[in-house]
Amino acid sequence: MTKQVETDETLPLGDAQIADVLTRWWGFDRLRPLQAEAIAAALAGRDSLVVMPTGGGKSLCYQLPPLVGETTDVVISPLVALMKDQVDALEAIGYPAAAIHGGMSQEERSQVRDRLAAGELRLLFTAPERLVNTGLLDVLARVGVKRFAVDEAHCISQWGHDFRPEYRQLALLRDRFPSASIHAFTATATPQVRSDIARQLSLRDPVQLVGTFDRPNLVYRVVPRTDRIVQTLAILGRHRGEASIVYCISRKETERLAARLAAEGLLACPYHAGLDAKQRHRTQEAFTRETIDIVVATVAFGMGIDRSDVRLVLHTSLPKSLEAYQQETGRAGRDGLAAECVLLYSSADVFSWESLVRKSAAESELEPEEQERLIASQMEHLLSMRRYAQAARCRHAALSEYFGQSYPAAACGACDVCLGETDSLPDATVTAQKILSCVARVQERFGVRHVCEVLRGAKTDAVLRHRHDGLSTFGLLAAVDQRTAENLVHQLLDQELLARTAGDRPVVTLNERSWEVLRGTREVVLLEPRAGKAKASKADTDDWQGVDRDLFERLRRWRRRIAEARGKPAWTILDDKALRAIARERPDSLAALLRCKGIGEKRLADFGDELLKLVSGKEDP
Ligand code: ADP
Ligand code: ZN
Known about the structure:
By secondary structure, the chain is an alpha/beta fold. It folds into four domains: 2-210, P-loop containing nucleotide triphosphate hydrolases (Rossmann fold), CATH 3.40.50.300; 218-402, Rossmann fold; 428-519, Winged helix-like DNA-binding domain superfamily/Winged helix DNA-binding domain (Arc Repressor Mutant, subunit A); 548-616, DNA polymerase, domain 1, CATH 1.10.150. The protein is built from 28 helices and 16 strands. The strands form three sheets. Strands 1-8-2-7-6-3-5-4 form an eight-stranded parallel beta sheet, with helices on both faces. Strands 9-14-13-10-12-11 form a six-stranded parallel beta sheet, with helices on both faces. Helix 18 crosses helix 19 (448-456) and helix 18 (428-441) crosses helix 22. The two termini are 51 Å apart. Bound molecules: adenosine-5'-diphosphate and zinc ion. The site of zinc ion (ZN) has 8 residues, from helix 17. Residues 394-396, 411-412, 415, 417-418 line the site of zinc ion (ZN).
């Protein structure tokens, strides 16, 4: 049974006991539809395979059932950081959970085992290798564990994007615990990965629940890249004091950009796999505790970062696939509040990726045939990414369709195209003709930079040496700066109105379509290169409706202080959604505070009085 259901809608609860647990522990009033079905399957002891996008609310599906049935369930998770964050978040609501992992002392581990044996724990988190290789299974058998949740279940499949061989060992769960149910969770949607998960875990006629991949609270923008730093600063300027992730391709770039942002007074740090573990850890921690706002990172940053209030994910270069883009942008707005995802696009990146792909295939130990297959598949991914970036159509629709789901709305109101932010250049055909005839005049023997220098009338050494200052096209685009000119040439390359040779020193050449433009039989549309203006999306306006922003900022300062004192990620204290609810409702009694979303009984007891004082202005954070 496969069902596709909206994940952002919520349903009233049928089951009074579930409703009671949900409001008392989490302070939520509703389950999302898929959660309700996943929880029903878990309570019925029926195997399940749940596919939900990042932020869809997978964790509640395995956190809630053991409270209802008063069982001890086991969650298998690939990363220690992920386990720790979840245990922290659960402890914050008084939920009896613990993790067993290699980073703990012998004594800490045996304490957890004692709690486990005494039946105190509702959830135990552990990694596959620890589960299988340490005798932990015997303990679990004695306790009579009846339910296993396998998180990030795509790690078991070599078709997934994050294959981990140790996940394969989980195959023995079925044999060792024949009467327990197994529940797999992932955000990877392809049917191939899905059936692989079911097979490897020997799931028995699992309930398959597949969520909607669209993330309505994210605003997508693609901005032609003209100046990485200027544009990055302008975009970050819309998110002062908010959590942002800025992705770069190379390690060097992350360091350069982070230094530049820090020089502008922004709280930014670089992050990449080449930094030592201690420094990486410090940066991650500073980010989750809100002592820095911005991480400038390679794709090494992300897995295990669970800050739910990331308001901006900015890609300064092209990701290598839409899968990667979906995953990286998925880190924005996990709290369900509006967040922005901007891609600075230049087709120059396509060519860098292409040569990287070829180089790494050539350096691999694969047979020539296999190399070709690898290159072809990576180029296919790159092409999809490029099509997305240059298409002037709704980004939400394009992404949904790529992941095999239709997108119902005609205009999403949450992307640059639907918000009408993209402008086309007046006289684009004439501009294109100027560029193309310049390519012809330099006899199709020069690269993008040189062609643009000639068009701008720049008297560089190379221009003078080749006497290109005497060409009729010299200075035809004198009013345009170099970056803008190069951007226009790249747009022509993207639309295949101009070609480019492969290799280290690519040369721009004309093709059949170029001649059609030159002869005036083909119209050209070019986008106006700009710094990236942005209109407010409906989601953003709605999320701030009625919120006292001063109070919200005071609440955040208070939260930062608590997070630092306790050494916990700030969002585990209270997330942004809860803070905004308080800053909107301005509760004046504990009863009113309890009605705010995200406030359950434990948080009320822990922070109720302090929060009321903050609201009434009697206390400074
Ligand atoms: P995933 O693991 O699928 O990426 P999470 O489990 O971290 O997603 O949930 C994402 C966010 O949604 C969290 O901030 C969580 O508190 C919130 N959330 C989950 N379920 C509900 C619900 N029923 N009502 C309100 N908020 C919810
Ligand atoms: Zn749109």
